[in-house]
């Protein structure tokens, strides 16, 4: 997702999308990003035997209560929030048994709905530490540049303006939760009002609208739609002058 106020541009991406954001910002070369993303996926898949991990979406429960559910259900296993996606939407990840227990505990604490996610691995939790360790030297070995525009990181919702900080955030992101709600709130606090989701689907657009209801949001899935971006930013600039 690329975001902008006319005179202030930011980029950001959800999980894997943070790599796309850094390519757009000039931090990473496209060819390097493709190779690293491929290895990242393989390392994450190999970190946990197939079928032993799980993820689930918890809807309608405050983040602190989701954290409580995970803590009370862990019983020595790994389970924790993996994606803070939007108000009332937190995804948890960990060992399959612990996730199942946390889901039941979340229901008892008042969750409106829980949804098991069909994923290949339990991403963004401590079970990914091995994958993070394997990926770290490869990320450190890349030829990188300071981003042309700040990239707001998943791991701490802070804009990364220097290559070293950007790489550090990508490393930590492997086993840390995606703080997407905080990312959008940070952008809004920086007076970002126009957002462009690049790629198929409108998932991030929907999340952004829940977090920043007044934002102007555009989804772009093909090059033919690129002129719409200019129109969106022109409209945004006009609204700032009135």
Descriptive notes:
- Helix content is 45%, strand content 20%.
- With 242 residues, it is of the alpha+beta class.
- A four-stranded mixed beta sheet has the order 2-1-9-10, with helices on both faces. The chain has a four-stranded antiparallel beta sheet with strand order 4-5-3-6. A two-stranded antiparallel sheet has the order 7-8.
- Helix 8 links the parallel strand 9 (194-198) and strand 10.
- Helix 2 (30-47) packs antiparallel against helix 5 and helix 5 (129-140) runs antiparallel to helix 6 (163-173).
CATH architecture of the largest domain: 3-Layer(aba) Sandwich
Helix-strand category:
alpha+beta
Count of domain modules: 2
* Mean pLDDT reading: 93
| Radius of gyration, CA atoms, in whole angstroms | 18 Å
| Estimated helix fraction | 40-55%
Order of helices and strands: EEHHEHEEHEHEEHHEHEH
- In the CATH hierarchy, what is the superfamily of the largest domain? Malonyl-Coenzyme A Acyl Carrier Protein, domain 2
- For the termini, the CA-CA separation is 27 Å
CATH topology of the largest domain: Malonyl-Coenzyme A Acyl Carrier Protein, domain 2
Low-confidence stretches: none
Highest CATH level, the class of the largest domain? Alpha Beta
Approximately how much beta-strand content do the residues carry? 15-25%
Strand order of the largest sheet: 2-1-9-10
Largest sheet: 4 strands, mixed
Give the helix tally.
9
User: What is the global morphology?
Assistant: globular
């Amino acid at each position: 997702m690329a975001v902008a106020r006319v005179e202030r541009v930011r980029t950001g991406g959800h999980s894997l999308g943070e790599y796309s954001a850094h390519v757009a910002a000039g931090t990473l070369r496209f060819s390097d990003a493709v190779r690293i993303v491929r290895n990242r996926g393989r390392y994450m898949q190999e970190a946990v035997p197939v079928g032993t991990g799980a993820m689930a979406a918890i809807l309608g429960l405050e983040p602190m209560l989701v954290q409580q559910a995970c803590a009370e259900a862990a019983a020595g296993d790994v389970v924790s929030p993996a994606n803070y996606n939007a108000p009332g939407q937190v995804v948890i990840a960990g060992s399959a048994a612990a996730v199942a227990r946390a889901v039941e505990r979340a229901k008892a604490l008042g969750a409106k709905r829980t949804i098991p996610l069909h994923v290949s691995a339990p991403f963004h939790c401590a079970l990914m530490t091995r994958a993070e360790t394997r990926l770290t030297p490869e990320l450190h070995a890349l030829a990188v540049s300071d981003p042309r525009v700040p990239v707001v990181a998943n791991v701490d919702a802070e804009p990364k303006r220097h290559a070293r900080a950007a790489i550090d955030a990508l490393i930590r992101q492997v086993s840390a939760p995606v703080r997407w709600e905080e990312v959008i709130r940070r952008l809004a606090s920086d007076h970002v009002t126009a957002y462009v989701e690049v790629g198929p689907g409108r998932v991030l657009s929907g999340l952004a609208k829940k977090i920043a209801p007044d934002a102007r949001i555009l989804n772009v899935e093909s090059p033919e739609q690129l002129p719409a971006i200019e129109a969106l930013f022109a409209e945004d600039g006009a609204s700032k002058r009135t």
